[in-house]
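Appendix B, record 7
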Amino acid sequence: MIRALTMLVLLLPLVAAAADTALPVEDDPVLEKRVTALTAELRCLVCQNQSLADSHADLAIDLKNQVRAMMKEGRSDAEIKAFMTDRYGDFVLYRPPVKATTWLLWAGPFVLFAVALAALFAYIRRRRAATGETAALTAEQQGRARALLDAPDSADSP
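Structure tokens (predicted):
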């Protein structure tokens, strides 16, 4: 028992040395806050549904480091966004600007909603028209229906 505990104590530093180490946090917390705020507005090009700030993809980490380096050089957020959009297009922005190439992206949901609403109203109108035509019976049809309902059923008689 003591021998097993001794081996465990001797092997524990080796296990700790093999573990992954945490990435160092930047010394400037103001810069890190700015990096986090800006990368939250940029889309991860690998994940596409996460921001750069949330993604752990290798490309996202490289882009975060690139943003951090540009901020250390003194570039503004607008300059960094311009660099990213020049390199990767408007897709990299979570809120792309409204312009000729992105108008469908901005107006698309509203257009689809309007088309769906128009289709719903057309369906309701057709449905009302169809039920209105079949509901009105002529006097002859009403008389035949009454005769069928009042007639004794041959299957019921013994």
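Remarks on this record: The domain at 26-97 is CATH 1.10.8.640 (Helicase, Ruva Protein; domain 3). The chain has six helices and no strands.
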